[in-house]
Write a structure and sequence with these properties.
The protein is an alpha+beta fold. It has three helices and six strands. Pfam families: zf-CHY (PF05495).
Length: 111
């Protein structure tokens, strides 16, 4: 079952547990980003949520599309480009810290 929640101007998909994009898989204080795959519209709480809820396999963002606004901060709803996100430790708009462990999963989202 997919849970979708509207966050300001973005749509979140996944097994959400709160309004800041945390899901049943990742729900620490720092898990406040959602990422859109190149294959679909919603920002997904995590790669496991996409695998469980989407009706298609995930497609990563190609290396030549690093300017795509594929990440949303769950705290302030600002979107970030792939480049801005991979270089950030937190949201440049509101200062919310991001989980540094997410760097281990970048290859699941970005080529």
């Amino acid at each position: 079952m997919i849970y979708r929640r509207r966050m300001a101007e973005v749509e979140l998909g996944g097994r959400l547990v709160d309004g800041q994009s945390r899901c049943e898989h990742y729900r620490t204080e720092l898990d406040v980003v959602a990422i859109r795959f190149a294959c679909c519209t919603p920002f997904w709480a995590c790669h496991l949520c996409h695998a469980a809820c989407a009706d298609h396999p995930a497609v990563v963002w190609p290396a030549d599309d690093r300017g795509a606004h594929a990440v949303v901060c769950g705290v302030c709803r600002s979107t970030l480009s792939v480049t801005d996100y991979v270089d950030a430790d937190g949201c440049p708009s509101c200062g919310a810290a991001f989980n540094p462990g997410c760097r281990l999963h970048h290859h699941l989202y970005f080529a």
